[in-house]
Design a protein that fits this description.
By secondary structure, the protein is of the alpha/beta class. It contains 11 helices and 10 strands.
Amino acid sequence: MSFPLRATRTLGRMSNVVRAKTFTSPAAMMVRGLRTSSLVRLAAGQTQGSVPPDVADRENPDLTAAKVDAYLASKLLHPDIGGDPSLERGQERADEAGMPQIAVSAMQGQFLTVLARAMKAERILEIGTLAGYSTSFLSKALPPHGQLDTLELSPLHAKVAQQNFLDSDLFPFPTIHIGPALDTLRKMKQPEEGGYDLVFIDADKERILDYFLEALRLTRKGGVVLVDNAVRRGRIALEVNDEPSVDVTGLRKLYDWVEQDGGKTVLMSAIQTVGAKYWE
């Protein structure tokens, strides 16, 4: 993840906008198809097949990262946040709808809650709803009078997220804005009470700089913008310059912009996370 802080200004509804009165928490310890039971086995050092765990770990560092994440989740996940059973049900609903398993991990989700609470955030913007997993973690950090807007391109994804929210007990209820995120962002104004305290961008990387600049416009001075998947398993530095992928090209544009800004507008750091989602 990348964590920009603005210096001069830091960094539902459905149907085009969806809102409801009640809603709940997010979907369980999901790791690219690994369910809670799988994570428990990993935390206990169990692996599939006859390969000894220590050998499997040496041969597959991704498995080690997943096991460590599972262990930490078993110790640290708050029962009312990451341990909410509705999270698992919500992810099962996403599976049934054929949605991609690309949401944040449970520990990453709880990190969002911790950060938002530490900031005493009252207004949060999310770019990329998917099934509402990270949305729910963010909502759990808000006070009752808080505001959470989340942007989603796919009506199907928004419908699944809406149902997940309704099956939970989250409050305040997120507002889902359906349509191309950049179009929606360009129409948005800062909340009347002031800019967003926290923005979480978990969307396509091809247009990441555009999302980022719009996020800066909408955040308050001293606010925080988070960019997920900002390392791309090292490809951000390793892909040759004449053949980069669309994702890497988009992220490099963001990093180039921050470099040229020279700290006048934002202060940014990037953290390579290793865990259930492996190397981010």
